[in-house]
Every structure is written in structure tokens, then in C-alpha cells.
């Protein structure tokens, strides 16, 4: 296989990638994908939108249903149809949380809707019904649902909802003396105990996740130990070939030169694999603790493309446009893995589309250093674009593990950098990586 690269001046260079070197690079890519799976294990971020949707469904169904139950099946002293309808309307957008996941207004809106529809409405109806047993239990259920979200989110919602409910109760013509103080005071220690239990359960879950992470780190360490021996053997074999090939092919200079280049590439790849294993094992415990230092951006991009095991249509479709040396703060090897993932995804899209090329451009702008990675293959629809960086989301479905772009975002964010994507379906997909200036 051959990879042909175009530099900023439009010149093309071709590099031979013999089979053994290509095999080494494929092994390195496999190690990266396995280790990345171990790094991204935060299930909370994966199911957050699903929780919002489920609470939205509970509100849309529950408010009208329980209005009928408490009004006609088991009549309560007080019900309010308009309050129920308002809460139902507020919960409707939560059903479409996935579609709105990229909207900045979704988190504050979810907090507002859930606060009004649960603690506010439930506590107000509890007060209006004189602290009845049915509504006391309903308030506890609302607390349990709330604390399945982030603890700060739940606490803010509960306290603000309770304050607003008391205010409305007074504004509705009741005095503070009309509050059923005895049931309320009896309810407070029960609610406090329920919250304490839920917080302890959350802490226990976090401990289990940490144990799982440590277990996977130990497993990676074991895998790394097993890989070091064959890698050492390959390194020794490459050294032996390098020493003997000149004499064995003394009369065939072109062939000797090609094989010597292949052996040199093997040695380089073996060293790179060894370094990557060590780096990923260390980062599996906490990828944000990776060593950060200034590195030259263009050099990492060129090396990543040169090392990539291109199939058809090959590296001749990759064009790079880089300025002079640009140094940014981060980790060169991890950034190489980020570029590898973007390159792999783009080539898969080009293969599916049967067309397209890849342009990589680096620009130093007043706000930041920008790396633009663009492919002109399939593009993605808007609903897919909104979920591009969600862990375990893949497009097309079942194409992969869905962790690659989440890995890229996680790594870049840990350096104070960022990544975003824009796309037009059937035209292009463009990723923009932003590095803060090193003196910021």
C-alpha cells in the first residue's frame, strides 16, 4: 500500500508502507481502540437525557391521570385542573430531550419544568389538602424521583419548589397559620432520611464505578505486560534484519533500500506502540492526568497521517495546509490518537459514499489556534449532528462502539481545548479543534 500526502505548497510525497509495518500500525490502532473503551465508562452522561425523557413521560401521563383519580375515584378535598394542565404542558418538551440535546436552553428549562411539575405542584397540593397521607406519600415519591438526578440539581429544585409552593399557598388566601404545621414537621425528618439514603446509594455507586475503573486499569496493565515481550522480540528481529540485509542484498540496491526503509519503519512503529501502551495504561485511571507539555501541532498531524494504515483510495485524498511551527499545550501522543480517530471516521464515510477527500488546515487566529478537519463524503443529518459526541452513539447504527468522538472531546477538554462539528448531509462534515494560545 502507498500513502501520498500533499503539503501546503501543493507538493505530493509518496511513502511505501510494506506489509510488516502496516501490520504494526494496525496493531497500534487496535490497542488504542481497546484502551479508549476502558477510559470512557461514565454511564451517567449516557442516560441523563433518557432520565429527562422518562420524567417528561411521567408528567405528561401522571398529571392528567391523577387529576381524574383524586377528583373522581378517590376524591380529595382540593384539586386544581389549571395547575395540572400547566404542568402537563411544561413536561411535553422533555419528551423530545434527545432532539434538543444540543440546545443550551435544555438544562435550565428541564430544571424549571421539573421544579414546577414536581416539588412545587406536589407541595402546594399537599398544603391545600391539609397534609393528608396520600399527598405526604406523593411528596416523598417526588423527592425520590428528583434525587435520581444530580444532587445539586435535585436540591435546588426541591428547595425552590417548596418556597414557591408556600408563597402560592399564602397568595391563594391562606395565612401562615393555615399551613398544617404538625404534618409538615412530621414529614421533614422522613424526607431528610430519604434524601440521605439516596445520597449514600449514589456514593456507593460512584465507589463501584471507581472500583470498576481500577479493575480495568489493572487489566490493561496485564495486557501491556503480555504485549511487551512480543514487542521486544519484534524489536530485536527488526534490528537483526537491519544488520543482515545489506550483506544479503549487496547486488540489489533498490530492493535493499526499500527493505531497509521498511525495517526502519517497523522499529519506529514498535517504539510508538510501546509508548502508546504505557501512556494509555496510565491514562485509564484518569485521562485528565496525562502529562501536558508544549508540542508542535503540524509535526503530530504529519506523523499521524504518515503512520495511518491506508486502504483504498489511499492517502492521496488527504491534503494538509499548515503554517509554520505552531506549539500548543497538551499531549502529543493523545492528540495523535484524536487525529487517528477523525481520519478513520472520515475514510469510512468516503468508502460508504464512494467519493470525497479530506482537508486538514491549521490557522492561528486572535482567539485561538484552530485545526479544521473536513471530509467531503456523506455528511450527517441534523439529528445525528446533535448527538455526535455522546458516548456509545454511532452512525450509521452498529458501525462501531460509539466512543471515538467522546474520547476526542474528553481528551481535548482536559487541556482547556475544545472540539465542535458542523455538517451538511450528502456534502461535508467539518470538525473544528480549538487550542487556547499557550500564553493564556
UniProtKB/TrEMBL annotation:
Gene3D superfamilies in the record: 1.10.287.130, Histidine kinase-like ATPase, C-terminal domain
Swiss-Prot/TrEMBL keywords: ATP-binding, Kinase, Membrane, Nucleotide-binding, Phosphoprotein, Transferase, Transmembrane, Transmembrane helix, Two-component regulatory system
Transmembrane segments: 55-75, 81-97, 109-127, 156-172, 184-203
The organism of origin for this protein: Cupriavidus oxalaticus
Alphabetical list of CDD domains matching this protein: HisKA
Superkingdom, taxonomy of origin: Bacteria
Name the record gives this protein: histidine kinase
EC number: 2.7.13.3
Domain Histidine kinase: residue ranges: 222-439
Record field: catalytic activity: ATP + protein L-histidine = ADP + protein N-phospho-L-histidine
MF terms (GO), sorted A to Z: kinase activity
Amino acid at each position: 500500500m502507498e500513502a501520498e500526502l500533499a503539503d501546503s505548497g501543493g507538493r505530493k510525497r509518496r511513502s511505501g508502507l510494506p506489509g510488516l509495518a502496516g501490520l504494526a500500525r494496525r496493531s497500534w490502532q487496535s490497542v488504542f481502540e481497546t484502551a479508549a473503551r476502558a477510559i470512557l465508562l461514565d454511564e451517567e452522561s449516557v442516560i441523563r437525557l433518557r432520565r429527562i425523557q422518562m420524567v417528561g413521560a411521567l408528567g405528561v401521563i401522571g398529571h392528567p391521570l391523577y387529576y381524574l383519580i383524586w377528583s373522581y375515584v378517590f376524591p380529595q378535598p382540593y384539586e386544581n385542573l389549571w395547575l395540572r394542565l400547566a404542568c402537563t404542558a411544561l413536561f411535553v418538551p422533555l419528551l423530545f430531550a434527545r432532539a434538543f440535546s444540543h440546545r443550551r436552553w435544555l438544562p435550565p428549562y428541564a430544571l424549571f419544568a421539573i421544579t414546577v411539575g414536581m416539588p412545587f405542584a406536589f407541595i402546594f397540593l399537599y398544603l391545600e389538602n391539609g397534609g393528608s397521607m396520600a399527598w405526604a406519600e406523593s411528596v416523598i415519591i417526588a423527592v425520590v424521583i428528583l434525587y435520581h438526578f444530580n444532587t445539586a440539581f435535585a436540591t435546588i429544585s426541591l428547595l425552590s419548589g417548596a418556597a414557591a409552593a408556600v408563597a402560592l399557598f399564602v397568595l391563594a388566601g391562606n395565612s401562615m397559620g393555615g399551613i398544617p404545621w404538625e404534618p409538615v414537621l412530621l414529614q421533614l425528618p422522613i424526607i431528610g432520611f430519604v434524601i440521605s439514603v439516596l445520597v449514600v446509594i449514589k456514593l456507593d455507586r460512584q465507589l463501584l464505578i471507581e472500583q470498576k475503573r481500577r479493575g480495568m486499569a489493572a487489566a490493561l496493565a496485564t495486557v501491556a505486560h503480555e504485549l511487551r515481550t512480543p514487542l521486544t522480540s519484534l524489536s530485536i528481529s527488526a534490528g537483526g534484519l537491519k544488520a543482515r540485509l545489506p550483506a544479503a542484498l549487496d547486488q540489489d540496491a533498490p530492493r535493499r533500500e526499500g527493505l531497509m526503509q521498511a525495517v526502519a519503519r517497523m522499529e519506529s512503529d514498535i517504539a510508538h506502540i510501546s509508548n502508546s501502551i504505557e501512556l494509555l495504561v496510565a491514562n485509564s485511571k484518569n485521562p485528565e492526568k496525562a502529562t501536558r507539555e508544549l508540542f508542535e501541532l503540524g509535526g503530530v498531524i504529519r506523523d499521524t497521517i504518515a503512520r495511518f494504515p491506508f486502504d483504498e483510495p489511499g492517502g492521496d485524498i488527504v491534503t494538509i495546509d499548515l503554517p509554520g511551527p505552531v506549539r500548543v499545550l497538551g499531549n502529543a501522543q493523545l492528540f495523535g490518537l484524536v487525529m487517528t480517530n477523525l481520519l478513520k471516521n472520515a475514510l469510512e464515510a468516503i468508502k460508504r459514499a464512494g467519493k470525497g477527500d479530506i482537508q486538514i488546515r491549521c490557522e492561528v487566529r486572535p482567539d485561538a489556534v484552530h485545526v479544521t478537519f473536513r471530509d467531503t463524503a456523506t455528511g450527517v443529518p441534523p439529528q445525528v449532528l446533535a448527538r455526535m459526541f455522546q458516548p456509545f452513539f454511532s452512525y450509521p447504527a452498529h458501525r462501531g462502539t460509539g466512543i471515538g468522538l467522546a474520547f476526542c472531546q474528553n481528551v481535548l477538554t482536559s487541556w482547556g481545548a475544545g472540539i465542535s462539528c458542523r455538517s451538511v448531509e450528502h456534502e461535508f462534515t467539518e470538525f473544528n479543534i480549538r487550542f487556547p494560545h499557550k500564553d493564556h
